[in-house]
Design brief:
Layout (H helix, E strand, L loop, with lengths): L1 H17 L4 E3 L9 E5 L2 E6 L10 E5 L11 H9 L3 E5 L8 H17 L7 E5 L2 H9 L8 E5 L11 H4 L7 H6 L1 H4 L6 H5 L4 E6 L11 H10 L4 E6 L8 H4 L2 H12 L4 H7 L6 E3 L7 E2 L8 E4 L2 E4 L4 E5 L6 E4 L10 E9 L6 E8 L5 E6 L2 E7 L4 E3 L4 E2 L17 E9 L4 E6 L2 E7 L12 E4 L10 E9 L5 H9 L9
Parallel strand pairs: 4-5, 4-6, 6-7, 7-8, 8-9
Antiparallel strand pairs: 1-2, 2-3, 3-5, 10-26, 11-12, 12-15, 13-14, 14-26, 15-25, 16-22, 16-26, 17-18, 17-25, 18-19, 19-20, 19-21, 22-23, 23-24
Helix pairs in contact: 3-4, 12-13
């Protein structure tokens, strides 16, 4: 009799498992009209747009612990709904990205896709600890993710909640979790997601003490880029881990989630396609003593510098003590007050005001950019006086990729200066990562008729020891997305030794 009962129980268990998750009515309070239900005994919800039809795009929100989502999210949610996008989530408790939580997420995903005709690629929207939950699922299912948006998301178990607190959710001791951390930690498992090309966008405060920027979003961005994944982190100055309204009313985050849920190109994708043609482009590949401008007729004279392996093709190698440089004469289309200058730079020794580009030759108070110990430095002027002489980013201006102005020798860096007179600001980039915004007042000028432009020499004795490649000038202020596109356009990414 006992054997028969056991057999019946097993058969019923198989039948229940094959039938999928158990879905029953729920009572979760939602901030907008929607349906609350329970999935395998866990609170879940969907908030549908008007006239929802088969193939519903959706945003998957986490965490959805008791009381979440709340009124704070209404502004975002209303904009999703207006675009025909549903919002959904399931409460996996304090699972901290453990298998128990990801298994429930898989059941929830399958239920929505197979039973409710939701699309197969939602945009994941992770706030705080929701990062552990959603990223742990996403790295296992990269082909089922349209994008990942984050509001100060946890990406690193060691950072939050810490190994001691998280271990129980994994059925491990803290020591065991430490030994197996790379198997479970989202930040150590990003490669499949990056290789699938899943776009990521986070907003994160630089004063967050609960989920520190450096150990979470910034570290994720650094690793994600290493694997070739598209990622952008917007750092909010002075904000911590809080319910500040700006987190939930970020137009950029909302637009990102909408685009990824709908499977539409991001604004950054469009900007990449619309990268404008520079007014001058010196590839520095040609033999001889002429630096040819492939975008126009601004050809220059090479003084002393020799050809060397470059970031793309060949470069010019400059020796400081020899006074090596390139001279470019003035042209009317260089009389710019808004412009962008970019160059690839490879230092051969520790820098001491190593000039990249300067127009202060024959006159002064115009423009230069150079590298010094622990900073990348620039000056802008109006041709008569200086407007700003500390257009710098320093060693501690690490942005989102962890690298500041203290440049290492024998590796290539992409340096971009954007002088935006309309906004009265300079934007400084290192390897497409925005390091500094510097406000100014006035009307800067790139060159005046009295000036000559030099590469490898900014002014006075400020000559370069190292290589320079792919120097470009635009007559407009490039956006962050365009700077990213410009950097990735470099076909040869091998560091010269």
């Amino acid at each position: 009799m006992m054997i028969r009962s056991l057999l019946v129980s097993l058969l019923l268990g198989v039948a229940t498992a094959s039938a999928g998750p158990v879905v029953t009515p729920g009572s979760k309070t939602l901030p907008l009209p929607g349906e609350a239900f329970q999935l395998n005994g866990h609170d879940a919800f969907v908030i549908l747009p008007p006239d929802a039809k088969e193939g519903i795009p959706w945003v998957w929100y986490a965490p959805t612990l008791r009381g979440l989502p709340a009124k704070s999210e209404v502004w975002m949610f209303e904009r999703f709904l207006a675009k025909g996008i549903a919002i959904a989530g399931v409460d996996v408790g304090e699972s901290f990205g453990s298998p128990k939580g990801t298994e429930l997420y898989t059941a929830f995903y399958n239920h929505l896709v197979k039973k409710r005709q939701f699309r197969k690629k939602p945009c994941l929207l992770a706030r705080s600890r929701g990062g552990l939950m959603l990223y742990s699922w996403a790295v296992q299912h990269p082909q089922s993710v349209g994008g990942v948006a984050g509001i100060y998301p946890v990406c690193n178990i060691a950072s939050y909640p810490g190994l001691g607190r998280a271990a129980g959710a994994y059925g491990l001791t803290a020591e065991q979790l430490k030994e197996e951390l790379t198997k479970h930690n989202p930040i150590d498992r990003l490669k499949p997601l990056a290789k699938a090309g899943v776009p990521v966008f986070h907003i994160h405060g630089d004063s967050d003490k609960v989920v520190p920027l450096e150990a979470n979003s910034a570290e994720l961005a650094k690793r994600y880029r290493k694997f070739g994944g598209p990622v952008e982190i917007e750092v909010v100055k002075g904000q911590g881990h809080n319910m500040w309204e700006g987190w939930f009313r970020s137009q950029k985050l909302t637009d990102f989630a909408i685009a990824r849920a709908l499977g539409q190109p991001l604004e950054s994708d469009k900007a990449a396609v619309r990268l404008p043609k520079p007014i001058a482009h010196w590839k520095l590949d040609d033999e001889g003593d002429v630096a040819r401008d492939s975008a126009g007729t601004h050809h220059g004279k090479i003084v002393g510098a020799e050809r060397a392996p470059g970031k793309v093709g060949k470069s010019l190698e400059f020796v400081r003590k020899e006074g090596d440089h390139v001279e470019i004469p003035y042209a009317e289309d260089f009389a710019l007050s808004t412009f962008t200058v970019s160059a690839w730079v490879h230092l051969s020794r520790e820098p001491t005001f190593s000039g990249i580009l300067g127009t202060r030759h024959g006159g002064d108070h115009t423009f230069d950019m150079k590298v010094n110990a622990a900073k990348v430095h620039g000056d802008i002027g109006d041709g008569r006086s200086w407007i700003e002489t500390a257009v710098n980013f320093y060693a501690d201006d690490t942005g989102t990729n962890g690298e500041g102005g203290d440049l290492a020798v024998k590796r290539w860096y992409h340096i971009v200066y954007v002088i935006d007179s309309a906004r009265q600001e300079c934007r400084l980039y290192l390897d497409a990562d925005l390091k500094k915004r510097i406000a100014f007042k006035g009307k800067p000028v790139l060159m005046t008729p009295a000036n000559t432009m030099h590469f490898g020499h900014s002014s006075g004795t400020e000559f370069m020891d190292g290589m320079i490649d792919e120097v470009k000038i635009w007559n407009q202020a490039l956006t962050s997305e365009q700077v990213q596109t410009e950097m990735t356009a470099a076909a040869d990414t091998r560091d010269s030794k």
